[in-house]
Amino acid sequence: MSFFSMRVSWRWSVAAVLFFCAFFGFLTGVGLSERPDVHAADALTKAYYSLGLFVMGGLDLGTPQGGPLFSRTLLWISYFGSPILAASTIIEAVVKTLSPHTWRFQRFRNHVIVAGSGELAVSFVKEFRRVSPSANLLIIDNDFDQLREVEFRRRYHAKIVRGDITRSFFLQRLHLKCAKKVILLGDDNFQNYEAAHKILDLEPKLQNNIIIHCNSIRFMRSMADSYVAKLCINFNAYQLAASALVKKHLNTHFLETTPKDVVVIAGFGVFGQTILEELQYSAKEEIDTIAIIGVDAKRRIQVVDEQNNLTNFCRREVFEGPISHPQVWKELRANVDLKDSQPVIILCTDSEEDNFRTSLWIKRKYPGAMVIARSYLPSKFATAVSEQNDILNVSINKLVRENFPADWLDVSDKRGV
Prior knowledge:
Elements: H1 3-27, E1 31-32, H2 43-56, E2 64-65, H3 69-98, H4 100-105, E3 111-115, H5 119-131, E4 136-141, H6 146-154, E5 159-162, H7 168-171, E6 181-184, H8 189-202, E7 210-213, H9 217-222, H10 227-231, E8 233-235, H11 237-256, E9 261-266, H12 270-282, E10 287-294, H13 297-308, E11 315-320, H14 326-335, E12 344-347, H15 352-365, E13 370-375, H16 380-388, E14 392-395, H17 396-401, H18 406-409
Parallel strand pairs: 3-4, 3-6, 4-5, 6-7, 7-8, 9-10, 9-12, 10-11, 12-13, 13-14
Antiparallel strand pairs: 1-2
Helix pairs in contact: 1-2, 1-3, 2-3, 11-12
């Protein structure tokens, strides 16, 4: 139950108790100095007077008289409690109206701040709640999708605030000195680093507890020597997913097959590039040939080699063109043997339709191949089609969610956070 829900539930519970205290007193014979016959009135009249205590107290009714001492005591409790409860509700509403941010944050302690409300934020929050179900969670964004906001509030019991995470005035109201972690998952890379810089200026103790997601690997690497990058944790979702794919699925296949393997990366966008990088780091001794297919693939491989300091650790073949073009695969078959081995063929373009259509064609043509089709979000349809055709469907979103480092998710004191 969220903090807001608990507060509302508490007020209704107290109001119900106070109402029944008054109603029971009237039912058991207690009268009023200004309404001496109330004990003889019908139940609706007694209920009306009981509710009236929340508005005017007993000013127009007089004081309790007669009846059992216990019943008079209950009525006196309602006399004092009902107007106090009503007044406190009004005061709270006024305070929230005049200073909403101060009221929202005044009770927040040991909280985790998540900036952003996209799919990556949902994935992080889902895993975070699985590991830290009772931690205080604050989600900030300039604009929330209405259904997404409801999901964050009800399913993940998070407090939602609209605001600009890069504004110092706004940051000062987030109680950063009491925060345990700040997770910057917005879509604007520069703004994520800008927010991190201002947070560090306001609260230096948060260094190494600020996590920055950067959509652009090139930008992330160019910022590697900056003050912010050195004091924060920087990551890219595609890198995290590629690392998980290689370690969880490909390395096992490599160890089970002989001789060295052939890998086809069909689609050389960010995900394909990060797969190549991960293969060099963790599987280069197991690979004989890597074939790369992609639009503008030759230029992209040159950029990747220069930026990442990649080496030609194995034979490399590059073919330019869309993965759905038969001529590209004809050229690949003329240069790379796919029949006398158990190749790994990864369809990883940004088009899920192209990936799955091509994966089905590849699997029929090379039944011994390990065929992997990439999608972004988990899909029951894609999973069913893949299982039916002995294809491995991998979801970027799921790979990322299942491989967030444990210390990002567990903020309990036992971990020293």
